[in-house]
Amino acid sequence: MALVARVSTRRVFSRHLHSPFPSRLSPHAFIPLPSLSSPRLSARNRAVAACLSSSAPAVIDAHTAGRWKPMCLYHTQGKCTKMDDALHLAKFSHDFMVDLKATTGSLNKLRPQNLDYLLVLDLEGRVEILEFPVLMIDAKNMDFIDSFHRFVRPAVMSEQRIKEYIEGKYGKLGVDRVWHDTAIPFKDVLHEFELWMKKHHLWVKEQGGLLNRAAFVTCGNWDLKTKIPEQCKVSKIKTPPYFMEWINLKDIYLNFYKRRATGMMTMMRELEIPMLGSHHLGIDDTKNIARVLQRMLADGVILQITAKRSSSAPACKNSYLLLSELFMV
Residue 197: enclosing H or E segment and its boundaries? Predict the structure, then answer.
């Protein structure tokens, strides 16, 4: 039995159909349209455009309906209003566990860790932070626990510059509308993030503000060494103490597998982990880094803090130097 949908083409990427489909599409997933054959459209965007075209219905058969679906980016921020819309639910996932579920067999080599929880973080935005995604993984059994995801509105850009910036960054992914609908200032993001951490007993401000039996996991040092202090300075706030140390997964990867990885894509390719979602969409990259992390845990890696920043350094980019590389290869 097939689901057939016909949707207006007023906007190729509509408010709630905001994330691209995977590049490897079933030949039965969509009816190809000649008008969508432009080489300027990516395979994913052509698929979404075909799905939304009024000149031909999108057909989702039972086999295709069971395949991978992109996350609803309103749901990741607690703002989805279409949970009773069958078509929306058929096209978008609302459950991270689908992609991050640890299998029983993967626990055979799992080793005890000195941390209870791992907070996978991958920021987006070079001028200012545009996206702040975190996935919480249980270090004891690799289970996905919870997520925190916010789009971030720049603090000092003009509205015209923001529009151009977002169009260039997220327009090609078809998620610029959801960004404009949901983005909030960085100060508000940190406030909501701290409430989220308190809920999970990861952080208590009155106890020094450091993480409790948890650590951030990043793909490189840039996110916490460079970008967070930069953004805090722009937003005129102090860099919170819970950002003072982290685990650089690339360093762990080099030490464990004895080969260097330049980034997430290299690690996924070498570990034969298929890419899910869109590269440089922060929540998708964070999910894929979490999948690499789960694979490394399953292979028996032991994690430890790889980098710290001086707590006495003044809050500016040049003074926030990497204090020490605690992880020696």
Answer: helix 186-199
